[in-house]
Amino acid sequence: MLTRKLNFPLLAGLILAAVAAPAQEQPEGALEEIIVTAEYRPVSVQELPTSITVFDQQAIDRRGAVHLEQLLNLAPNVNLSTGASRGRFVLIRGIGERSQFVEPINPSVGLIIDGMDFTGIGGAASTLDIKQVEILRGPQGTLFGANALAGLINMVSNGPGDDASGRAGFTVGNHGRLETSAALGGEISANAGFRLAVQSNKSDGYMNNVYLHRPTNNIDELSARGKLNWAPGDDVSLDFTILFSDVDNGYDAFSLDNTRDTYSDEPGHDKLESLAATVDASWQASDSIAVEALLSQVDADTRYGYDEDWSYPGICDDTACDTGLWGFEWWYASTDNYLRNNSNTTADIRLVSDTGTAAWVTGIYYREQDQTLLREYTYASGDFQSGYDTSNLAAYGQLDVPFHQAWTLSAGLRYETRDWKYDDNVDNDDRASDDEDFWGGKMVLEYRTAAGSLLYGLVSRGYKAGGYNSALASKIPDLEQEGILVPPENLVFTAETMWNYELGLKGSWFRDRVTLSAALFYQDRDDMQVKQSIAIPVDPNSTDCPCAFIDSLQNAAGGTNKGLEIEGSWQITDNVNLFGSLGLLDTQYEDYLSYAHADADLDNGVPYDLSGRAQAHAPGYQYALGVQFLFGSGWFAQLDIEGKDEAYASANHDEKLRRYKLLNIRLAYQTGPWRFAIWGRNLGDEDVQTRGFGGFGNDPRKFYATEAYYQLGEPRVYGLDVRYEF
Questions:
Q1: Residues 407-419, buried b or exposed e (16+ Cβ, 10 A)?
Q2: pLDDT averaged over every residue in the chain
Q3: In this model, does residue 546 exceed pLDDT 80?
C-alpha cells in the first residue's frame, strides 16, 4: 500500500491544500505560463501529457540554489545521493545511480545543459544564468534513448534577448560562503545577439577535520558561458553556446563518529574541468516543415579520490587498539583515486511539421563517447587503466493526431543500436566488445475538457544499456593470488528495460488562480541492474575487515516502482500564494537473491533474498509545502517546509537513511533594479543522511566492528543576497 507509511500530519494538509509546483510560483495575480523546451516543439507545461516539474529563474533565485542538487528535493519523487562533494547522482522514482567508482556506468537519468549532453557529469550542473530547469519523470525512450530510463533533466540558460539586459550580484553566508555572478546580453546587430555569464562559488564546507585542524569538504567552483545567436536569413537561425566549468572541491565526508568531525590525514577531492560547445541550427523550409540540427561536444576531466581509512596515524594511541595489547598498532591506511576523461559527441537532425490537422517529427541521432580511467589505489598491485568506447545510432519519430475535437492520439518510436568496446591493462584475456539493439517509445491518449483541463493516459518503454564490470576486471590478478576466481559471466551485465504506465490530470481553475497536476504511475522493470559490492579482507589470512571493496553491476530478475505525484498552487489573494509538491513511492525487488548482502551466508553458499524489499534511495513519501507573501512597498517573504520518508541506503545491507523535515525561510526587499534578501535553509539544523554504508567496520578504535556510516547533507545555512538587474 502506498499509504502505509504516511503518518506525518503535514501530508494531509498538503493534499487538502492542493499542493503545487515551485515553478508555478508568482505572487502577483494569476500564474504565468511556463513553456517546456525539452520536447520536440515548445509546449506549455500544463499541456504536456507527462509528469514534469519546471523550476523557473524566479524559483531558483528564491531557493538560493547555485547547483542542481539544491532544487531536486522540491520535485516529487526526485532524490539524490551525495557520493561526492555534491549530490550529483540523481534518482527519479527510485531509479538511478548512487555513486561511481571503477566501472563505466550507464546512467539512468539524462542531463542536458543547453543541448549539451552532460549525462553522468552532474558536477557541471550549476545554475549559472539558468532560465529554467525541466525534470521529466518516466522513461524518455523516444526523446532521448539509452540514458533516460528513469527520466531526463533539461537545463536551459537565458538567451541574448532583443534589448541590452543583465544581472550581477553576490551572496555571503556562513561556512565562509561567497558567491559572485554576472551576466550581460544584447544585440550585436539587427540579426545577431550575444550573452555572457560567469559565476564563482566558494565556501569552507561544513565538515571539520579535527586532525588537520581546518574545515574540509570545501567548495570552489567556477562556471562561464557564452552564447551567440545569428539569423543570416529570415528562415534560418544559428545558436552557438560554449560552457566552461572548473570545480576544485574537497571530499572528506565520512566520519568514524557519524558527525561533522572527520579524522582523515589525506582528505579527498572532487574535481572537474570541462569545456563544451554546441551549435543549434534551424531552417523553416516551408510554412509547415522545419529542419533542425544540433551538434554538441563535451570534454570533461574528473579527479575523484578519498581517504579510505578515514583516520590518521596515531588514532589508536592511548586506546585499546594501541601496540600495548597486540605488539602492533591495529590500524591500516589507504587512499583511492580515480582520474577520468570523458569525451562525448552528439548529433541530432530532425524534421518537424505541424499542418494543423496533424503534427509529426522524424530524426536521426548519433552519439559517440570515449571514457578512460586511471585508478591509483594503495592496496592494488599497480595502477589500473581502462578505456570504454561506445557509439549509438538511432532513428526516431512521433506523430500527434487530433480527432473528435477534444481528443489527441500521440505515438512515438525509437530504434537504437549501440556498439561498445572495453580494454584495460590487466594481464588477462577478458577484453570485451558487444553490440546491442534497443527500442523504446510511447503512446499517449489525451482528452481536453471544455474548461481546458487535460486528462491523459500514457504507456512508454525505456531501456538502459548493458556493459562491462571493469571494477572486477581490475582486481582479477589480486583475486587469483588469493584463490578467488571471478566467473566470466559476472564481468558482463545485460541491458535493463522498463514499461511505464501513467494516468494524469492537469488543469487550472478560478481564473487560473488554482493550478493542479497529478500523475499515477506503475513501472515494471526487467533485468534490473543492481550495484553490488564484494568485500575482500586486506589480510588474506583473516575473514574480518579491514577490507577492499570491489563494486560491480549485476542483473536482478526485475522490480516494480509505482506511486503518485501531485503538484499545484493556489493564488489565495493577489498578495498570498500557497505552493507545494507531494510524491508517494512504493518500490520492490522481484526474484532477487543477493550474495553481496551483509547477511548472505557465503561460507555455505546461501544468498540473501531481497525479493519484496524496497529499493535503495526510494523514500515512501516526499513533500514540499510553502507560502509566499507580497507585503507591498517591495517586501516579499517565503516560508516553506520539505521532507522525506526513510529509505534503504543500499541493496547490500539493511541500514536506512532517516526521515527528515526541514524549514526554510526567505525575506526580500526590492527597490528599482536592486534586490536584497536574507535567507536560511534547514533552520532546525537537522542531520540529513544523504548516503550510507553498512555491513562493514572502519574504526580501529572499535577493532573494525561492523556498524553503519552516513554522509551528512547540508546543515543550517544562511546568508545575504544582493542582486542588480537591468
A1: ebebbbbbebebe
A2: 88
A3: no
In a domain, 1, yes or no: no
Segment 618-640 shows an average pLDDT of: 95
β-partners of residue 551 are 533
Q: How many CB atoms lie within 10 A of CB 356?
A: 7
Helical segments of 301-389, H only = 323-326
CATH of the domain at 607: 2.40.170.20
Task: Please give the pLDDT value at position 19.
Answer: 33
Q: Give a yes or no: residue 4 inside a domain.
A: no
What's the mean pLDDT in 614-636?
95
Asked if residue 362 lies in contact with residue 349, where contact means CB atoms within 8 angstroms, the answer is no
Domain count, the chain: 1
The amino acid sitting at 107 is: P
Residue 237 has pLDDT above 90, yes or no: yes
Identify the domain containing residue 369 by its residue range. Answer: 9-725
**Within a domain: residue 3?**
no
Q: Judge if pTM exceeds 0.85.
A: yes
| pLDDT tens figures, 147-187 | 899 999 999 999 997 778 899 999 999 999 999 999 999 99
Of the candidates 660, 500, 586, 530, the one whose C-alpha atom is nearest the C-alpha of residue 77 is: 586
Distances (CA, A) of 640 to 63, 624, 629, 661, 711: 10, 7, 12, 11, 24
Maximal C-alpha separation, the chain = 87
Q: Please give the pLDDT value at position 342.
A: 95
Percent over 90 (pLDDT), the chain: 67
Say if 2 falls within a structural domain.
no
Residues sharing a CB contact under 8 Å with residue 92, sequence separation 6 or more, in sequence order: 77, 78, 79, 108, 109, 135, 137, 138, 150, 151
3-state secondary structure string across 424-493: ECCCCCCCEEEEEEEEEEEEEEEEECCCCCEEEEEEEEEEECCEECHHHHHHHHHHHHCCCCCCHHHHEE
Q: Find out whether the peptide bond into 27 is cis, omega within 30 degrees of 0.
A: no
Alpha-carbon dihedral of residues 299, 99, 218, 659, nearest 10 degrees?
140
